[in-house]
Each structure stands twice: as structure tokens, then as C-alpha cells.
From TrEMBL:
Residues 11-89 form the Insertion element IS402-like domain. It comes from Planobispora takensis. GO terms for molecular function: DNA binding; transposase activity. It comes from the Bacteria. Signal peptide: none annotated. One of its GO terms (biological process) is DNA transposition. This is DDE transposase.
Length: 281
């Protein structure tokens, strides 16, 4: 990397080594037309993506000591379209599960959705009104395992019913993780999701709220999906649906989880404003 003052979101050497082999393999399969290695350090490109995910800045507002935003967005979009973002994410997820003494693939997932406001640049045909929450924007659906790791992501207009998102999530889960046999949902997912899950060999269990409970109480088993959304909100780019394309929103979730998992695997943490002198190692 070029000499510059580090940002708290920068990859440490240990975190970069978890990502580098996939990026290097992709780079080897996509040589430059002119035959050179490229003008920008791939580690710095990833640092710029993580900087944006964490701070929520616009592409054009990336700091000048990082690669130009045009180059960063080029790689972000190319890796999104090639599936490299998900490949990195899934490999790290398997390592986190192995570190926790779990099998690579889960046997159960929790499904949940989250509605977020969209920015003005989001095309109207990719946004909508969530009638239940009276909120206009996009709806994110995730399937997460019991460790709080993302198994599948679906982003759609907020007007799309939870049933449609739940069915799409189950399709993704079944295709990539055939070991899953149980899915926990809340009452927002109706019978259509359970019927679809049965056809895939996945038993969908609706976790009901105890009617005698007053105030907020985490729902058994599926509370972990809500925890994942809360963790993702630490990445300010996800505080609103800023991306023009739903696929880019999904990619930003993968990169944010990659940020979390590399820290989890290496035991490092992000510096906070409460302790500005501490840096990740």
C-alpha cells in the first residue's frame, strides 16, 4: 500500500490475508488488456469499499488518499456481477463456523425482513410502500444461522410482501445450503412460505410472541436475525437504501458482513470515537 494515515476501517495484514487469495485468483483470471497488473493495489480498493460501507459516504466523497472513486466503483460493480463479493463472504462464514466448532453449513436458519427508506437516486420501480410499517423504500430479507451469520440475502421494493421475500430466501438457502432442514420465522410470513419450504424439504416454524409478555422481548430462536440487522446498522451505508440497484444493496450487505467476519476471525475491533487513540491491529 502507498504511505498514508490509516483509517479505522482499513484491513490489517491478518484480515487482508483472509481475503487476498480470492481477489488474487480473480485478478489472475481477468488480466488487463494491455498486460499490466493494474494501477491500483487491490487491498486499497477493498479498503475503500469498507470505508464507504462503514462511513456511508457517497462514491464521489471517498477520500483523495484512497483510489479514485471511479476505480473503486468499477471493482465493486464487477465483483458484484461476478459474485466475488459473495464468494469471499461465504468462505469467511465457513471459517467462522469452523472456528466456533460448527459444521460448515447450518441445519437451521432464521428469516426476517427490514424496511429502510430509499434515497432519491433509487429508481421508482425498485422502491415501494410497506403498508404495514407505512414506510416507503426497500425491504431487506435475510436468512441467518444461530451464530448471527448471513446465509442468504434478498433486497426488493418495500411493497413486496414478506411471503415473496421468504420464498426467495428459501430458494437461495436450499440451492446453496442443502443441509438446512428448519427455518424459523415470525407471523409476518404466511402459509405460502411454509408450503414452499415443505416442497424444498425445509420445515418452516412460526415463532409466536408470548401473549402474556409485556414490552419488548426477544423471540426465541429467531431473535438472532434481528441481531444481525442491528449489527449491520453499524455500517452507515446500510442506514438507508442508497444504492441505485437492489443487487448493489445486497453486495453492500455482503461486504459489511465480510468486515465483521474478518474482525471476528482475527480478534480485532474497530476504533471508536470514545477511544480515538486505539487502532485495530
Amino acid at each position: 500500500m502507498s504511505e498514508r494515515q490509516p483509517y479505522p476501517s482499513d484491513l490489517s495484514d491478518e484480515r487482508w490475508e483472509l481475503i487476498r487469495p480470492v481477489i488474487a485468483s480473480w485478478k489472475g483470471q481477468h488480466p488487463s488488456v494491455s498486460g499490466h497488473e493494474g494501477r491500483y493495489d487491490m487491498r486499497e480498493i477493498v479498503n475503500a469499499i469498507l470505508y464507504q460501507a462503514r462511513t456511508g459516504c457517497q462514491w464521489r466523497y471517498l477520500p483523495h488518499d484512497l483510489p479514485p472513486y471511479t476505480a473503486v466503483y468499477y471493482y465493486f460493480a464487477t465483483w458484484r456481477d461476478d459474485g466475488i463479493d459473495q464468494t469471499i463472504h461465504d468462505l469467511l462464514r465457513w471459517q467462522v463456523r469452523e472456528q466456533a466448532g460448527r459444521a460448515e453449513d447450518p441445519s437451521a436458519v432464521a428469516l426476517d425482513t427490514q424496511t429502510v427508506h430509499s434515497s432519491l437516486n433509487a429508481p421508482a420501480d425498485t422502491t415501494g410502500l410497506d403498508p404495514g410499517k407505512k414506510s416507503r423504500g426497500r425491504k431487506r430479507g435475510i436468512a441467518s444461522d444461530v451464530l448471527g451469520l448471513v446465509i442468504a440475502v434478498v433486497v426488493a421494493a418495500a411493497g413486496v410482501h414478506d411471503n415473496a421475500i421468504g420464498i426467495a430466501l428459501l430458494d437461495k438457502v436450499a440451492a446453496a445450503n442443502p443441509s438446512v432442514r428448519t427455518a424459523w420465522t415470525d407471523a409476518g410470513f404466511k402459509n405460502a412460505v411454509a408450503a414452499h419450504g415443505a416442497g424444498l424439504g425445509i420445515e418452516v416454524e412460526v415463532v409466536q410472541r408470548d401473549p402474556h409478555t409485556c414490552g419488548f422481548a426477544p423471540l426465541p430462536k429467531r431473535w438472532v436475525a434481528e441481531q444481525v440487522f442491528g449489527t449491520l446498522m453499524l455500517h452507515r451505508r446500510l442506514a438507508r437504501a442508497y444504492e441505485a440497484r437492489p443487487a448493489s444493496s445486497e453486495s453492500m450487505i455482503y461486504w459489511s458482513m465480510t468486515d465483521n467476519m474478518t474482525r471476528r476471525l482475527t480478534g480485532t475491533a474497530t476504533s471508536t470515537w470514545r477511544d480515538p487513540g486505539q487502532r485495530s491491529t
